[in-house]
Design a protein that fits this description.
heterodimer, A: alpha/beta, five-stranded parallel β-sheet, four-stranded mixed β-sheet, B: 467 residues, alpha/beta, six-stranded parallel β-sheet, 10 strands
């Protein structure tokens, strides 16, 4: 007998006789916080930064004033072509190792933990938000949801190859519980909250 | 590792307790993490409902896991993922090695996976000439020191920054005496960046696997699982079969609980959903049993398979905090590890269910409401019955049972005990008496409660009044 058949047989023998019902998830997540304010507070607490902007021009101005534009900046957003490269999506992912800043669009944010949902179709490359030294994500203010329950409702059964919630910059506290930002992924995260 | 003789928990714990200052530090550091957990939990009005919901979802999983596994495999295969089944640790290791051999690759970068610790994968691959680098900072540190992780979430929690500095100076050439965590983390970042960029095979663990969609979720704060997986040609993900959940929407419940219970964060920095390999990449999932189906059949202990590996039970455990993770001689330490370990090897791990005060704090913080302290208590019964406990303990327990069952003997024993403690204290205050370890014996009362009660109870008072 194959291991698969053997494992499944043993499981069938040993699992409880009656299948218990799945609980109702609708009773969860009914609290209604001030989503935008909560989002900003939580993001700040976990080491990220938020900037409210009216349009893409304001984002470009902010980037010009705060980042060294001569370093490699990549994006998937055509409106940012003035400050960032768009022609890297089909490159070998290893060639992104010298990227200083990656700017991507997020589908939506979650107020309770400040996470932003991104999928490979808007990331350009899966490794992009991890390998860049710094990361910026743009999300519409109207797309901040209260909790994870609403987040998965929104995702529903959408198709993706890879998707991730990103909450703040990469971090570790593995040395004596001292928090250090910039473990292996981005050293800093800036979230542009777009009107 | 597995071939070495196991030293009992109490013995390693005694050694750990020799450095009082360090034990206090270890205790306080973990308690600090527990407090962060409390703060995070108290901010969620629905917290208790969330725990109950998570527990019920896992209950459903355990009662239907056969069908969920088949559903998961079908969907994962549709997504282009190759699914392997391993009955035990040996088969798991062989499967991983076969994938490496097929691609003729001698190096692997690995993110945190307690399952591969349980299976001793690193040792196995080393024997086959394959170098594994653990990329989680804590695991990287303990790997350089040739130690196992001492905690499932905080692998290097037993070390001080001075220890890490010394290790990095020796292996990475960092400045001697530079203890700055920022500096030390940065040096690991630089070293491991090169590792990520050059490895063809990346192995990750799995936090949750979704039957409905065939995807799996990996949670990290460092981004190391993603750095490895997205740059490698081959991604291998290893999971115990109990990691399954029915539907995608159930992730909403577990992702709200996991990081809050583990470190007090609202969520881990990255919660990555791997559904399909990227173009040109190969993706494998290894589903492992290794004793889990046996545990599923033990009615008293099957709930331990609900565990989502948050580590909250360790952070709160007064025994874990003052004995350290290494004293548990098992990949998963602490209260939950002490329930899982005897299932893997009863005689080798017979000491672990006794490494608890049964205070119940573990049960109170468990995000999936596993009755941890009850199961520890039940394991003790099983282990004594099956003869796995030391002879001295068995004799002592049997003697106690006789004494407690017979009022005359009980009375006599109490009297002679008090007499001895009063008149021959050396007979009690010596090394033979485990209760004398690190504490003074109490002052001897003049009479037992029974004697006092005889004099003072209502009936005896009434009798006195009649006279």
């Amino acid at each position: 007998m194959s291991s698969k058949a053997e494992i499944l047989k043993k499981i069938k023998q040993n699992q409880p006789d009656f299948v218990t019902d799945l609980p109702d998830l609708e009773v969860l997540g009914s609290e209604n916080p001030n989503v935008l304010e909560t989002y900003k507070t939580v993001l700040k607490n976990i080491g990220g930064e938020s900037v409210e902007v009216a349009d893409y021009n304001e984002i470009i101005d902010f980037l010009k004033n705060n980042y060294a534009l001569e370093k490699r900046i990549i994006t998937t957003i055509p409106e940012l072509a003035e400050v960032a490269a768009l022609d890297w999506k089909n490159d070998d992912p290893h060639t992104l190792q010298n990227v200083e800043l990656a700017i991507v669009k997020g589908h939506f944010g979650v107020a309770e933990n400040s996470a932003i949902w991104v999928t490979d179709d808007i990331l350009g490359q899966r490794v992009a938000p991890f390998i860049a030294q710094y990361l910026a994500i743009i999300v519409n203010k109207n797309d901040i949801l209260p909790m994870m329950h609403q987040a998965y409702k929104r995702i529903g059964n959408l198709e993706y190859g890879f998707g991730t919630f990103i909450a703040g910059p990469s971090k570790t506290a593995d040395i004596e519980q001292s928090l250090v930002l910039g473990a292996h992924g981005a050293r800093g995260l800036i979230v542009f909250l777009l009107d | 590792m597995s071939s070495k003789k196991t030293i009992p928990h109490s013995e390693v714990a005694t050694r750990f307790n020799k450095d009082v200052e360090r034990v206090n530090w270890h205790d306080e550091t973990l308690w600090f993490v527990r407090e962060k957990r409390d703060k995070a939990a108290h901010q969620i009005p629905d917290w208790e409902l969330l725990r109950e919901t998570a527990s019920q979802i896992k209950h459903n999983v355990l009662s239907n896991i056969h069908d969920y596994l088949i559903e998961f495999e079908e969907n994962a295969q549709k997504n282009g993922i190759t699914v392997h089944w391993a009955a035990d640790a040996k088969e798991h290791n062989e499967i991983v090695h076969a994938i490496m051999a097929k691609h003729d690759v001698k190096q692997m970068v690995k993110s945190k996976s307690m399952l591969t610790e349980e299976c001793h994968l690193n040792d196995y691959l080393a024997e086959k000439g394959i170098e594994v680098i653990d990329s989680d900072l804590g695991e990287f540190i303990v790997q350089l020191r040739k130690e196992p992780p001492s905690h499932i979430v905080l692998p290097a929690i037993h070390l001080k920054k001075e220890d890490v500095s010394e290790t990095f100076h020796e292996h990475l050439g960092t400045e001697k005496g530079n203890f700055n965590p920022q500096y030390l983390t940065e040096s690991a970042r630089q070293t491991l960046r090169d590792t990520f960029l050059t490895r063809k095979v990346a192995l990750t663990g799995v936090n949750f696997a979704v039957a409905e969609t065939g995807e799996f979720v990996v949670c990290t704060n460092e981004g190391n699982a993603d750095m490895g997986a997205h740059l490698a040609d081959v991604h291998i993900a290893c999971m115990g079969f109990e990691k399954l959940i029915p539907q995608r929407k159930h992730l909403g419940v577990f992702l709200r609980l996991l990081a809050r219970s583990a470190t007090g964060q609202p969520i881990t920095t990255f919660s990555s959903h791997f559904k399909k390999p990227r173009d040109g990449q190969e993706m494998h999932i290894v589903i492992v049993d290794n004793g889990r189906s046996t545990q599923l059949g033990r009615e008293d202990f099957r709930n331990s398979l609900k565990c989502i590996r948050c580590g909250a039970c360790m952070n709160t455990c007064p025994v874990y905090r003052r004995s350290g993770g290494h004293s548990y001689h098992n990949a998963v330490a602490g209260p939950i590890g002490s329930i899982l370990a005897p299932n893997l090897d009863m005689s080798k791990n017979a000491d672990l269910p006794f490494a608890s005060t049964l205070c119940g704090s573990c049960t109170n913080v468990c995000p999936v409401k596993i009755d941890i302290h009850d199961q520890l208590y039940k394991w003790r019964q099983v282990l004594v019955k099956e003869g796995h406990t030391p002879a001295a303990k068995t004799v002592a327990m049997k003697t106690m049972a006789t004494v407690l069952a017979n009022p005359t003997i009980f009375n006599l024993a109490g009297k002679s005990g008090r007499f001895m403690m009063k008149n021959v204290p050396a007979a009690v205050n010596n090394k033979m008496n485990k209760w004398y370890d690190q504490r003074e014996m109490p002052a001897v009362p003049e009479e037992s409660f029974r004697e006092w009660y005889k004099k003072n109870s209502r009936e005896s008072k009434a009798k006195d009044n009649e006279q």
